[in-house]
Design a protein that fits this description.
- Belongs to the class-II pyridoxal-phosphate-dependent aminotransferase family. Histidinol-phosphate aminotransferase subfamily.
- By secondary structure, this protein is of the alpha/beta class.
- It has 2 domains: 104 residues, Aspartate Aminotransferase, domain 1 (Alpha-Beta Complex); 222 residues, Aspartate Aminotransferase, domain 2 (3-Layer(aba) Sandwich).
- 37% of the residues lie in helices and 16% in strands.
- It has a 7-stranded mixed sheet with strand order 4-10-9-8-7-5-6, with helices on both faces. Strands 11-14-13 form a 3-stranded antiparallel sheet, with helices on one face. Strands 1-2 form a two-stranded antiparallel sheet.
- Strand 7, helix 7 and strand 8 form a beta-alpha-beta unit.
- The radius of gyration is 20 Å and the shape is globular.
- It starts with 8 loop residues before the first helix and ends in a 7-residue tail after the last helix.
- Bound molecules: 4'-deoxy-4'-aminopyridoxal-5'-phosphate.
- The site of 4'-deoxy-4'-aminopyridoxal-5'-phosphate (PMP) has 13 residues, from helix 4.
Length: 356
């Protein structure tokens, strides 16, 4: 039912999918949302508890301490950093900031499923550009830029395929983007990258004033429930987006947990190393079982099953394993705890037609 007072575009938007974590009241093995399998470190929990005691007060709307710590962590000025309620809030702020009549946003597809609805909500025309060999096709994306393109998103590593774009290709692409068009590298999974074949946009910011990078505490830092992410970019971009960001949207608990996580970086890095090792183990087993899984540089693997994706997804559901199914395309499975990963591998090995 549409609401007469509302914009018709809302009728076209899909609602966000319910979490795939519970079936018939029974918890499933949670391999659908690319979360960290590890519980928060004790130091993070202590920070959460301490910040919770101040729940009757508004948090610092400017996220001052967190912004400072992030600036130090990345060797950039504080004016270049903006925290938000998850990196998705910053993507939404970017879209809102760029939206004007006729404006377009170019992004890879298949990629993060919220790019199209965020664009439509903001009133931007979505221009999805198909992947090539499971990668963001930067040449094709550059070809699609017009005088109406205000924003270009690059997802590196790409969700759901886990691939990265090469550094040379990235630089050549950035050289082709006009200066009045904002480029955003969505690096939600960059902490899992272990290949020299790509580079973070953080190392390119000086060369490209129209470039910004988004990152998140939801994945490698294990704070998905607390909703905190950040953007690094030119100070004038940060200043403008700070006006779009909802005041007080990053809770005090989230700010303190993120700060504590930055102080525990070594231990979190060791956890990420474990995930990377599990990723290799899973991919090796899946390749041996006949699945053509592209090399992943993130905390998930992509099974390009085509027309069999839905049936494979149901097969996993029957085994109480939550994965993300993309009908007609493939299935994405997160790298979880070793036990959950073993269960998934057993389930995949039992798939009758495991030859792709
Ligand atoms: N970008 C990508 C590519 C993602 O996969 C996600 C979450 N799945 C996000 C951004 C948003 O993450 P968050 O809002 O939790 O920071």
């Amino acid at each position: 039912m549409s609401v007469p007072a509302f914009r018709p575009v809302l009728d076209q938007l899909p609602g966000y999918r319910a979490t795939e974590g519970v079936y018939d009241g029974e918890p499933a093995r949670p391999l659908s949302a690319n979360e960290s399998p590890d519980e928060p470190l004790p130091g993070v929990l202590a920070a959460v508890t301490a910040a919770g005691a101040l729940a009757h007060r508004y948090p610092d709307p400017l996220c001052t301490a967190l912004t400072r710590a992030l600036a130090r962590r990345h060797g950039v000025p504080e004016e270049a950093v903006l925290a938000g309620a998850g990196s998705v809030a910053l993507l939404q702020a970017l879209m809102t900031a760029c939206a004007r009549p006729g404006a377009e946003v170019v992004f890879p597809w298949r990629s993060f499923e919220l790019y199209p609805p965020l664009a439509q909500l903001a009133g931007l025309r979505p221009v999805p550009v198909p992947l090539a060999d499971h990668r963001n096709d930067l040449d094709a994306m550059a070809d699609r830029i017009t005088s109406d393109t205000r924003l270009v998103l690059v997802c590196n590593p790409n969700n759901p395929t886990g691939t990265v774009v090469g550094e040379r290709a990235l630089r050549a692409f950035l050289d082709r983007v006009p200066p009045d068009c904002q480029v955003v590298l969505d690096e939600a999974y960059f902490e899992y990258v272990r290949t020299p074949d790509t580079c973070s946009g953080l190392t390119l910011l000086g060369a490209y004033p129209n470039l910004a990078v988004t990152r998140t505490f939801s994945k490698a830092y294990g704070l998905a429930a607390l909703r905190v992410g950040y953007l690094v970019g030119a100070p004038d971009v940060v200043e403008a987006l700070a006006k779009v960001r909802l005041a007080y949207s990053v809770s005090g608990v989230a700010q303190e947990a993120a700060l504590a996580s930055l102080a525990l970086e070594e231990r979190l890095r060791a956890r990420v190393d474990d995930t990377v090792a599990e990723r290799t183990r899973m991919r090796t087993a899946l390749l041996a079982a006949g699945f053509g899984v592209p090399e992943s540089h993130s905390n998930f693997l992509w099974l390009p099953l085509g027309d069999d994706a839905a049936a494979f997804g149901r097969h996993c559901t029957a085994e109480r394993i939550a994965v993300r199914t993309y009908d007609g395309e493939g299935v994405r499975v997160s790298v979880g705890s070793p036990g959950d990963n073993d269960a998934f591998l057993a389930c995949a090995a039992a798939w009758p037609s495991a030859v792709y």
